[in-house]
Write a structure and sequence with these properties.
Radius of gyration: 29 Å
Helix content: 40-55%
Largest sheet: 4 strands, antiparallel
Distance between the termini: 71 Å
Shape: elongated
Strand order of the largest sheet: 3-4-6-5
Number of strands: 10
Structural class: alpha+beta
Length: 289
């Protein structure tokens, strides 16, 4: 089947990089909007769209494969990109069209040719593992989907609209993603970019979707600190006192030996640093008690 009916409009099925997409012209047609409406919305808000996730730029040489009529290629939108474009369409027809496109077009089960099935690797079942980002406990969109049953595409869309980047979540790729995988060697899922979600972001998603989800244990522990952050490896009060006394004796010996003034100043600075550190550790121990 090369077309699908949305309301009274025939929409040609288009796929790009393994997922279904729509053109800006398709959106105008199915929603009954003046020509150029979707393009204006896209251009006005392009900074919020993520290339490779919300939209793609099809090259002229790819037109025939994708099914685009424009000789210059054009923009195609994924499900998340489409939903971002039409979120301000609030008339009754818009709601019906959105529902039909999402259920019957974007999420329709696609039949794969036999040769594809033969080559397709068996997918490993989802397995949750605790994850950290720069020492902080985090979840991924796949984790939230696992706990809530909500499609990860909806989760990603909600993150960008109800949460604050760098506070509730981070969108990581390239070098940041490499560091994330180093910090989480058990994380084996293949991804070129990733949402990592902090506790505040998870709470906002739960409220946004109006669901009751048991909060993952990693998110409710009062102090989740990775092994190399554990305070047990820090110097104790006795260590600082010993260092302070040693430096005092060194300074005294330096004076007796009539060392250069610069040496004494260096020792003074070292002693002051030890004293400050000792004060901080003592304050922490006092708060704990």
């Amino acid at each position: 089947m090369n077309e699908i009916v949305i309301g009274t409009t025939n929409v040609s099925i288009k796929e790009y990089k393994g997922q279904r997409v729509v053109t800006l012209s398709d959106i105008d047609t199915v929603h009954g909007r003046p020509k150029g409406t979707a393009r204006k919305r896209f251009n006005d808000n392009k900074g919020h769209f993520i290339y490779g996730e919300d939209y793609f730029k099809v090259q002229p040489s790819e037109n025939r494969t994708v099914g685009i009529a424009s000789p210059n290629g054009g923009i195609v939108l994924t499900e998340s990109g489409y939903l971002m474009i039409v979120k301000s369409f609030t008339d009754n027809k818009a709601w019906d069209v959105q529902r039909a496109l999402v259920k019957s077009y974007f999420r329709a089960k696609q039949e794969k040719p036999p040769q594809y099935e033969q080559l397709k690797l068996e997918e490993k079942p989802y397995e949750y593992i605790d994850k950290f980002y720069k020492g902080q406990p985090v979840l991924t969109s796949a984790d939230v989907e696992h706990f809530s049953g909500i499609n990860h595409t909806r989760i990603d869309y909600a993150l960008r609209n109800v949460c604050t980047e760098h506070k509730d979540y981070e969108y990581i790729a390239d070098d940041k993603l490499v560091e994330f995988k180093k910090e989480n060697p058990k994380y084996m899922r293949s991804a070129s970019r990733l949402f990592v979600i902090f506790k505040s972001g998870f709470d906002k998603l739960v409220r946004h979707f109006g669901i009751k989800v048991e909060t993952p244990k990693i998110m409710i522990e009062e102090k989740t600190i990775k092994d190399y952050y554990k305070p047990s490896i820090l110097p104790t009060d006795d260590d600082y006192i010993t260092a302070l006394n040693v430096l005092k004796h060194v300074k005294m010996c330096a004076k007796l030996a009539e060392s250069k003034p610069s040496t004494q100043r260096a020792l003074d600075v070292a002693i002051s640093f030890c004293a400050v550190a000792l004060g901080e550790v003592s304050a922490i121990n006092y708060c704990k008690s």
